[in-house]
Amino acid sequence: MIAAESVREAAAGLRGVAVRTPLLHLPALGVYLKLESLQPVGAFKARGAFTAVRRLSEAARRPGVITYSSGNHGQAVAWAAARFGVRAVIVMPETAPAVKVDGVKRWGGEVVFAGRTSADRQTKAEAIAAGEGLAIVPPFNHLDVIAGQATVALEIVEDLPDVATVVVPVGGGGLISGVVAGLAAVESRARVWGVEPTGAPKLQRSLAAGRVERLERTASLADGLITLTVGDLPFGILQRHRDRVAGVALVDDDSLREAVRYLHRECRLDVEPSGAATTAAVRTGAVRPAGVTVLVVSGGNVDPKLFED
Fold first, then answer.
1. What is the third-level CATH fold of 4-43+143-307?
2. What is the band of 309 on the pLDDT scale with cuts at 50, 70, 90?
3. Which of 203, 209, 225, 226 has the fewest CB atoms within 10 Å, counting from its CB?
4. Is the pLDDT of residue 96 over 90?
């Protein structure tokens, strides 16, 4: 579903635009951290958003773009739109963290609030798009977005050809499916662990059921990981490459909070709970490193209050 050529083209398109993020060795945990928190918008979402906006035809892009997002994808779409000089409308939940709302506005995005769930946001965004002729750039259920996220895996394998395990936080599934597709594109034998909050185990349940499962409600400190469901496109990719998926681990809010503080204290890294989920999974033993292991630190847009004991 994601051709290797699409992933390589996405990587070429991101060159000089997104940051080629470094790997930080963490001997205390026996892992490397892939620091996507260093992207221009503070999250890996820059890769997929820019790729999707760039691949729009000029005619489709000219009126502007719109998305629905709890925060990081919204910032990324606003940033990408600014690079192309077009309007960006971001539909966000009423509960969106101030740091992420401010981030969208910093890149020139217009913020519209709608409800508390991803369904609320999507419905509002689709209505605005239809009424104003804007192109929708979904947060995860889009092949161009996934191709952009897949470039994370290309960089990991280039820097660590012997990588055996990659651990990825899971929201709607765009990042984990992209990483799996990227590893497949370069024929890496590495396997992937997903990490979800205990209050939002949508991928774990979907893989167990063999179909996309929709949760009635979700809750977690990791606001970027609490979608009610994974996308059908990401899930299809994971099913196609099921042998590459090692499993899905769950982490609770206490371990997320502790991981945020650990990374701040020990590594001088500002990481949001969603981005710290992979570290939490290793620190709690929910995931045990197997061979050369990379933890994707997906985002760094964090409320400084979380650093406080």
1. Rossmann fold (3.40.50)
2. low
3. 209
4. no
